[in-house]
Amino acid sequence: MSTLGSLLVAEPELKLTFAWPRNPAPHHTAKIAGLAVLSSTELMEAGRTRTLPAGSLVLVIGEMPFRVRGRIAAALEALLQQMALDECVGLVVSTAPGQPGHQPFPQSIRDLSDSLSIPLMVTTAQSDRWTHADARIQHDRLNVAEHRAEQLHTLVQQLPSQLADPKAMQRIADWLARALSVQVLVSETERVLAASPATAAEHLAHAIIRQSVDGSIPDTGPHTQLIPLAPATGTQAVLAVARRSPFDDSELRLLQHAAKLLGLVEQACREYRAVATASHAARLAAVELLLDGEVSKARRIMQNLQPGLLDTDMARVLIVETSATRRDATLRRCETVAAGRALVVADPQRRDRVLIIHPVWLDEPADSVVGELTRLVCALRPGASLGGSGTYSLSLLTDALNEATIAARFAVHDPGSVALSVQETDLVTLLSPHESQRWAREILRPLMQTDAWDLLRDTLPIALAYPYTVAARRLDLHRNTVMRRMTRAAELLGRDFTSLTDRITVALALEVVTHRQPSDVPSEPRDTGTPQLHTLLDTPQIRAWADSLLSTARSDRRDLLATASAWLTADAHLEPTARELGLSDVTVRSHLRALEAHLGRDLSSLDGLRDLYVALNLTTGKLNAVGASQGLHAVA
């Protein structure tokens, strides 16, 4: 923007000089908003009320007499008084070439000039020269206005899409430092919120301390500004800026705008922290209630925070371990990864752990959250690990936490820093206690009504699980004795123990009866019909268990589940499976070994075969087993 000093230098054709005061240097920086031109006739009009544009340089055209006196002197004095009221920057009069610079103005006008701080200037240029000068002054004003508008636009652009963005305040401070060539410090009483450059706190600390001690802005010179961010809200935050050169009015206005925006960001961050603290406390309370078995109370708490999150009946517990110094950052990243699909809290017992309770839904990929957490832990290594439990009822999450804690211990020593026992939940524990007991007793009724029940109850579990020779050795019996007992049991039950499905069905019934005594079964009224096995197994809990069991096997590039289906259909015989699939025995055996690793099951055991069989029936329905209506083939 043009000043009186720049007009002298940049516009020599104006032939402009200071007539008064003798030392005009203090007036060189006065900014010119425009040119107000008065003719000598207009000057002499008595009683005329005029308003001059603020910040204007007043030019009186028409040559002044050699000596100004009488009516002309009175008119100039009146003009100076009006200029002072309208905040004009200077008075210029036209004189004849060669006339002394200060000669037109008598002492009375010079004294008035001093008292009003309005410089007196003379020019010998023609009026048309001043017309061009006025155009350049307006052009300069336009450029400055556009620059300030661009600065305001850029300042507003620094605002984030979310006011609570923790980096927004630093971005605004960095921009201010660049735009105004200043040092910027945003601080509260006890902490620095943003500084640009990083050393700004050292240079501005004295001003901040003085203000905090006596409550007033200290007189630190014309080049330091302290602006409260939001005094109406009671915050102590303040914007402090400093530089070598003084600030002009437009820059001070820009700082005021920046302080308002910083105040909004600071208020949003403060309120977000309060809400987040309350939210974390509520989530932690919900987790503690779940671990205490208070599922209904936990659901009521979470209904307001995340409606529907705990509407399922099953969940798994995951533990992310990291260093105590990185725990808060890890917690935030876990919350981002969970994306509302899990309950994530900082472990109140240990400062190096994050607890995640992941509700399991049937329509959700089994490894969705687990897979993303695994990738997160890999990105955070070294120093981070992940342990996880299997799928449990929400009322049994204490058991899940114990399992996850054990898994976390192994994860620390695992090369991948991950140990997940998502398949370790026992199938039998997921069965309805009352209904499964009734089903098992109906299956085994012919045996339980004979005098040989106690004898067969001890023999059957081993003989069903192993070849008769191995079973005889384990039972310390002769092989023929084992064979006779098994033949009699098969006849009483109407089963074919060469069939894998019959062996699994009878073994499952024996396990239910053996491991769940009648006293453990809830006293519920008996239904008229006998429960069917497919009804017992086709529940949300068991389907979730089956989905979890097979989740990692599905991701294998080999079609392991197709091999497993063919192998189970062939009663776990290798050669017919290989013929059916058109593969070699070696390939089928390799697939089965890989499947064991994915499932965490021993497929040479009857329990491992049972879990695989049930999971495949529930999730794929590809097995076409044959047997009685109470058998496993009905599950699909």
Write the layout of secondary structure elements.
Elements: H1 4-10, E1 16-20, E2 34-39, H2 40-44, E3 56-61, H3 70-85, E4 90-94, H4 107-116, E5 120-123, H5 127-157, H6 168-180, E6 183-187, E7 192-196, H7 200-214, E8 224-228, E9 238-242, H8 249-291, H9 295-305, E10 314-321, H10 327-338, E11 343-346, E12 353-359, H11 368-380, E13 385-388, E14 392-393, H12 397-413, E15 418-420, H13 427-430, H14 433-448, H15 453-465, H16 468-475, H17 479-493, H18 500-515, H19 533-537, H20 540-554, H21 560-569, H22 574-581, H23 585-599, H24 606-619
Parallel strand pairs: 2-3, 3-4, 4-5, 13-15
Antiparallel strand pairs: 1-5, 6-7, 6-9, 8-9, 10-12, 10-13, 10-14, 11-12
Helix pairs in contact: 3-4, 5-8, 6-8, 8-9, 10-11, 14-18, 15-16, 15-17, 15-18, 16-17, 18-24, 20-23, 20-24, 21-22, 21-23, 21-24, 22-23
